[in-house]
Design goal:
- The protein has three domains: 10-14 and 24-77; 107-125 and 327-428, no CATH class; 146-295, no CATH class.
- The chain contains 14 helices and no strands.
- The protein is mostly helical and 428 residues long.
- Helix 6 (171-193) runs antiparallel to helix 7 (199-221), helix 8 packs antiparallel against helix 9 (264-282) and helix 11 packs antiparallel against helix 12.
- The chain is 75% helix and 0% strand.
- The chain crosses the membrane at residues 112-129, 149-167, 174-193, 199-221, 233-254, 260-279, 291-311, 323-346, 358-377, 383-404.
- Keywords: Membrane, Transmembrane, Transmembrane helix.
Length: 428
């Protein structure tokens, strides 16, 4: 039977009972040398294999240690985040005992938006009531001081933002815009009934308000046709509003600064907008200009709200119009509603919202200034001096407080390098 290499023969093995030999034979001595060499060879191979394994395992071990460290760091960071509300709760225990709950700036702006619904709901009521009383007294001439262009601009701006907010799923903001649409349409109806608004323009207002109420109501209730047809109907309505807005904006600017009554600016702008939309749908526009029509309604609404009070303001300062038909209550409610929307608009960093709210607030104050400067036939001011002074001081303090609070909320984010936004401000 063959033997394995390095295994001694039977004659070289001695049992305990066998007598010891005086010296090993040459054959046994060679076998023992062979055994020692084989053991050294095996030990060398094992050492080499162990070293290679360690060299190969070292990067993996380092990666495992790094991953473990990252995991520990992540868990530690999460634990610190979990401890922050607890610490805030412990610090506000005294406030809880007194019934006062600390609220973040982002939550406070949400409450301000909810509160702004009330002044917007009552915004046109003083003007509507005053117009009705003038009608009943046989003084329809007082409505001549109301600019139908200004109210039409405000009406269409609300209409655009109604579609804008409903498309984003912001029902509360959409409700405010729906209130604005109905209120402005009511005042325009009174101006038309007094004979100071063209019939064609009023017919367009009626058609648009009915279409807006039907389509937007179906959109909110989820009653539009299902599938791709639903998206096509809403997209067509959104594009139509954008096209009308493009036509109305230059017409509103023209009517504000010119006494010549012509629809030429609206026709030119509508033709240019229709051509741009057709080229965009056919894919013939340059790549840098494609897909921008979706932002047209938002920018149009921004500019319409910027020019909305301007027509009435120019009419007030012109000195040729009778200001007895202008309601101070409407201006105060408009300034209050827009002012309450400013903090939320700043938090959301929404250009449309911020521009409309700030501009509407400042232009309402400017119209109050015109009422303070102008006098009635009896020599009295349309807006008392002490009331205008109190209103101006309160508005200045409120705007300063908003600026300070918004800067205070953004300061920790700027220190940490976090870009400002609604999500980041919610964490502060």
């Amino acid at each position: 039977m063959p033997q394995r290499p390095g295994t001694p023969s039977a004659s070289c093995l001695t049992s305990p009972s066998a007598p010891a030999l005086s010296g090993p034979s040459q054959k046994c001595r060679g076998s023992r040398i062979q055994i020692a060499g084989s053991h050294n060879l095996y030990a060398t191979d094992y050492t080499r294999a162990q070293g290679a394994w360690r060299r190969a395992a070292l990067p993996l071990q380092r990666r495992a240690q790094k991953a473990t460290g990252l995991e520990v760091g992540r868990r530690l960071q999460q634990s610190l985040k979990d401890l922050r509300p607890s610490a805030a709760a412990s610090q506000s225990s005294s406030a809880e005992g007194s019934g006062l709950q600390p609220k973040s700036w982002e939550q406070q702006t949400q409450h301000l938006v909810a509160v702004s619904t009330l002044p917007f709901l009552l915004l046109m009521m003083p003007q509507v009531i005053k117009n009705a009383s003038n009608f009943m007294a046989g003084n329809a001439r007082a409505l001549a001081a109301l600019s139908w262009v200004g109210y039409s601009t405000a009406y269409f701006g609300n209409l655009l933002l109604l579609a804008y907010f409903v498309g984003k799923g912001e029902r509360e903001a959409g409700l405010i815009q729906a209130i604005g649409v109905i209120s402005n349409a009511t005042v325009l109806t009174q101006i038309w009934a007094a004979g100071y608004m063209p019939g064609a323009a009023y017919a367009g207002v009626v058609i648009l308000v009915l279409a807006a109420l039907v389509i937007t109501g179906l959109k909110v209730a989820g009653k539009l046709p299902a599938g791709r047809k639903r998206g096509k109907i809403w997209s067509a309505w959104h594009q139509t509003l954008g096209l009308i807005g493009v036509a109305l904006l230059p017409q509103a600017i023209w009517a504000t600064f010119s006494r010549i009554n012509t629809p030429l600016p609206a026709c030119i702008a509508a033709a240019a907008g229709a051509a741009f939309l057709a080229l965009d749908k056919s894919g013939r526009l340059p790549a840098a200009m494609r897909g921008h029509w979706a932002s047209v309604p938002g920018w149009t609404a921004t500019l319409l709200f910027a020019f909305q009070p301007l027509a009435q303001t120019v009419s007030n300062f012109s000195g040729t119009s009778d200001l007895t038909g202008v309601s101070v209550g409407t201006l105060l409610l408009g300034m209050m509603g827009n002012g309450l929307m400013i903090p939320r608009a700043l938090v959301m960093r929404d250009a449309v919202w911020s521009t409309g709210s700030i501009w509407g607030t400042l232009l309402s104050w400017t119209q109050l200034l015109s009422l303070f400067i102008r006098h009635t036939a009896s020599g009295q001011r349309h807006f008392a001096g002490w009331a205008f002074a109190v209103t101006s001081v309160l508005l200045a303090l409120y705007l300063a407080a908003i600026a300070f609070k918004d800067a205070e909320a953004r300061r920790p984010l700027m220190t940490k390098g976090t870009p400002p936004g609604p999500g980041a401000l919610q964490q502060s």
